[in-house]
């Protein structure tokens, strides 16, 4: 089970970075947008991974997989688009400078 173990750090990093933006403005909107993006990316991954595996462009050694599949695509392949959909907007939010607030006193 090599591939599931490779995915774990990406998922953990994504969760940590995303949760660190909870108190920042626009969190709910960002999560809704990320969820829609994740669904689209997962749909595309489902279609194209299955096509590429079906025409034998690549294959995965069974001993390195969890055994769970969606069609021909191993479930591990879906972690990357999921992480990208949530991690990139969260990183952008954290790295974008915010304007300084003036004292109203």
UniProtKB/TrEMBL annotation:
<comment type="pathway">
    <text>Carotenoid biosynthesis.</text>
</comment>
<dbReference type="InterPro" id="IPR017825">
    <property type="entry name" value="Lycopene_cyclase_dom"/>
</dbReference>
<keyword id="KW-0812">Transmembrane</keyword>
<feature type="transmembrane region" description="Helical">
    <location>
        <begin position="6"/>
        <end position="24"/>
    </location>
</feature>
<keyword id="KW-0413">Isomerase</keyword>
<protein>
    <submittedName>
        <fullName>Lycopene cyclase domain-containing protein</fullName>
    </submittedName>
</protein>
<keyword id="KW-1133">Transmembrane helix</keyword>
<keyword id="KW-0472">Membrane</keyword>
<feature type="transmembrane region" description="Helical">
    <location>
        <begin position="78"/>
        <end position="95"/>
    </location>
</feature>
<feature type="transmembrane region" description="Helical">
    <location>
        <begin position="36"/>
        <end position="58"/>
    </location>
</feature>
<feature type="domain" description="Lycopene cyclase">
    <location>
        <begin position="11"/>
        <end position="94"/>
    </location>
</feature>
<dbReference type="Pfam" id="PF18916">
    <property type="entry name" value="Lycopene_cyc"/>
</dbReference>
<keyword id="KW-0125">Carotenoid biosynthesis</keyword>
């Amino acid at each position: 089970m090599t591939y599931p173990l490779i995915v774990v750090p990406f998922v953990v990093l994504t969760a940590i970075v995303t949760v660190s933006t909870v108190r920042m403005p626009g969190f709910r909107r960002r999560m809704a947008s990320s969820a829609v993006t994740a669904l689209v990316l997962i749909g595309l991954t489902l279609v194209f991974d299955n096509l590429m595996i079906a025409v034998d462009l690549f294959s995965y050694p069974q001993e390195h997989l969890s055994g769970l599949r969606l069609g021909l695509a191993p479930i591990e392949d879906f972690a990357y688009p999921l992480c990208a959909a949530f991690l990139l907007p969260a990183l952008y939010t954290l790295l974008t400078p915010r304007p300084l607030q003036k004292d109203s006193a």
